[in-house]
Amino acid sequence: MARILAIDYGNKRVGIAVTDPIKIIASPLDTVHSKDVISFLTTYFSKEEVEAVVVGYPTNEEGEATDATRQVQAFINLFRKKFPNMPLHLQDESFSSQMALQSMIAAGSNRKQRNKKSGNIDKVSAAIILQQYLEEN
């Protein structure tokens, strides 16, 4: 069964999450450098059946574009060029990083495990974005 994959795109790191095969639960998958994300996705798509991709789309509290929106839009354009047949959905990512941090604290992660340099927050943020998408759709 095909999965849905989510991307939390950042200038340096990209968090990636996927659903289980029956598309009920979103789980963190990996964190990759932004320059390596297309290569990672090409490899992943060749090994796993993915029916759609969800990209976290940053907006401010008024729903307007932010500084990060331009970077994410550039990635979306590149993604559509590289994977023209892959359905792509946008999901509001407001507060996903803060929610990821709080969920990691609640799960008992120590400061080192939560450290942004490790990328744990990025892939947990991607899982939160994906879970929100699943719940809304």
Automatic annotation (TrEMBL):
PANTHER family: POLYNUCLEOTIDYL TRANSFERASE, RIBONUCLEASE H-LIKE SUPERFAMILY PROTEIN. This is Putative pre-16S rRNA nuclease. SMART domains: YqgFc. The lineage of its organism: Bacteria, Pseudomonadati, Bacteroidota, Cytophagia, Cytophagales. Could be a nuclease involved in processing of the 5'-end of pre-16S rRNA. It comes from Marivirga lumbricoides. Belongs to the YqgF HJR family. SUPFAM superfamilies: Ribonuclease H-like (SSF53098). GO terms for biological process: rRNA 5'-end processing. The keyword Cytoplasm applies.
